[in-house]
Amino acid sequence: MPGLDLSSVTTFLEGFLLMDTVRISRAGSGPPVFNQETGEYDWPDGDPVYEGIGAVQVSGTPGGISTLPTPNLPWAVESRSKYVMFTPPDAPIAEKDMLISVTAVHPGGDLSLLGRQWRAQDPSQVGTISVIRVTGLDQVQQTRETS
Predict the structure, then answer these.
(1) Cα within 13 Å of Cα(63), Cβ side
(2) Of the candidates 26, 41, 25, the residue with the CA atom closest to the CA atom of residue 116
(3) Measured between alpha carbons, how far is 55 from 40 in angstroms, rounded to an integer?
(4) Do 109 and 19 meet the contact criterion of CB atoms below 8 Å apart?
(5) Helices then strands, each counted (H, E), the chain
(6) Residue 38 pLDDT level (bands cut at 50, 70, 90)
(7) 30: left (phi over 0), alpha (psi -120 to 50) or beta
(8) Helix (H, G, I), strand (E, B) or coil at 112
(9) pLDDT digit string (tens) for 75-86?
């Protein structure tokens, strides 16, 4: 029995969901650098692995519990802000801790995506039947400079 041809589903999703431009990069070396435009620290980009069509969306419900206390730590762990990145199935697999950014948004898109960075929580998901590549992300949290 021949496999399913899901190329028309992939084509539909590319036109319907993958409307922005995303970049996947290896983490650069060195400390974060203060960004004057955003007022936040950016990790230096390393070697780009992919730059092309994609989307970054929040995953889960706003205001939901995103972290639980760890019993053996005397402090609360940094809360995870759950996001997902969608890319075409032929895009490279993002490895754990690679940096993700949105470099361009579609007309009418959310401009607040620009200037943010996310880390891949795990390698991109793969499967026998796949029409889109999904990568779990955590937004890079940072402390703003205070005077």
Answers:
(1) 0
(2) 41
(3) 22
(4) yes
(5) 1, 8
(6) confident
(7) left
(8) helix
(9) 555 556 689 999
